[in-house]
Write a structure and sequence with these properties.
It contains 14 helices and ten strands. By secondary structure, it is of the alpha+beta class. The strands form two sheets. A six-stranded mixed sheet has the order 8-1-9-3-6-10. A four-stranded antiparallel sheet has the order 2-7-4-5. Helix 2 runs parallel beside helix 3, helix 9 crosses helix 10 and helix 11 crosses helix 14.
Length: 366
Amino acid sequence: MVQAHDHTSLSLAASSMVLDAERLDGASAAEPPAQCRTHGPDPLSDVLRTVKLTGALFFLVDASFPWGVNVPHAGAFSHIILPRAPHIVSYHIILKGSGWASIRGVTSTWFEAGDVLVLPHGDPYSMLSEPGQPPEFDVEATMDYFRDMAAGRLPFVTREGGGGEPRSEFVCGFLGCDMQPFNPVLSTLPRLLRIKRSRNGREGLLSRLIDLTLAEARQPRVGGESIRVRLSELVFVEVMRQYLETLPAHETGWLSGLRDPTIGKVLAMLHEQPAYPWTLNEMASRACMSRAALAARFTHVVGHAPMHYLTLWRMQIAARLLADSSMKVAVVGCEIGYESEAAFSRAFKKTVGVSPSAWRKQRRWN
């Protein structure tokens, strides 16, 4: 997990996300039959690519006690920091000190150096040196700050607070992405996610990415902004990987499905060949499970029945193709497995709520 930074030296250790999809429930160490072996695709990368993860603001706050800020709903400032993004994810990497983060009436958590906070659903929230204190930056002041930062009128490092001790440092990042019609990563995350610092002293890829980003910011060079934005995207991906590694064994949701030996295999197959004419029988056969067992386990872990999940994922792919390409509606439907434009249009409208052509118009006007 992230360690408190001294900005001098960070070792680069290999980061891993164990998706042991080749193991089958109850199977021996013997090599499984060919039809039961895992596929190569990486569903997490597939989803993050298809929901069009895009970096926005990334800056460093140096706060002295007491300090505090109220951040409005992401819909209030998305047009300022990333106008074309349908959804904004906020995250904060705590480099020094501690404090409290809360969504009023929903949840509150204490954080310390090395932690990462993620607010994936756009909720209004506060970050305070102590709970209940009046924030230095209310909503209006925060909006003014976003306007100035987005316009390039502020330095990368912002100093705030009352001038006392202890001091806190944290990186603030904001990313744009699609939430509709289907974003399985964000849909399964809690409203406020705290990934705690490692207790074993391990430094990994996340620390290295943060260090590189801060180094780029402190020594401005041509192209530095583009590099920082890309690094912020990588930071978020690594945060998701570390969250996956820390999920309790009993946890359910799409990310939990990735690490389940059988369900992870099925997800990989569906992401590798979304246009294939899948049936539940074939999925079960390839997963070496009974039809009923696969349906029950997939639904319990992922939250959707296998065939329903396939439909949702096909519609997400179609939505991206409609927004980003000039492909005809019939061709888009064919790309995701529909033999006729009419069948695709019916399925799209049933799932998304509007026709493919209406979706395309909406996204291009935004």
